[in-house]
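Comment thread on ticket #2218

A.B. wrote:
> Attaching the input chain for the structure job we discussed in standup.
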Amino acid sequence: MTTAEAHKNNGVRTDLVVYLCILALAAIQFVIAYQSIDTSKMLIRMLAVAIVEAGLALLFFMHLSENRGLKWFVLILTVAVILGLQYGWPDSFRLIDGVPWAK
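C.D. wrote:
> Ran it. Output below, let me know if you need it in another format.
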């Protein structure tokens, strides 16, 4: 076998393994969804599984594992967006509960 054919077969095998892992993580989410646990515990568990699932999809199916510069760009951008969302959430609680000093 030439190196190109070996790389192609190894790439398909890797994609298949990652795809099966993502399917297993989806099954884990299904099991978590039907457990009778507290909402906050379910949120934390589902979010953790979703982050792992999204990380696998980004690294292998979008080929971020092969490009180091793009991986850091996506990581920094994602962290910036999440931190930006953190400043928006307290305002949404204010809209639900009202202004605490006005009561």
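A.B. wrote:
> Thanks. Noting for the ticket: Residues 68-103 form one domain.
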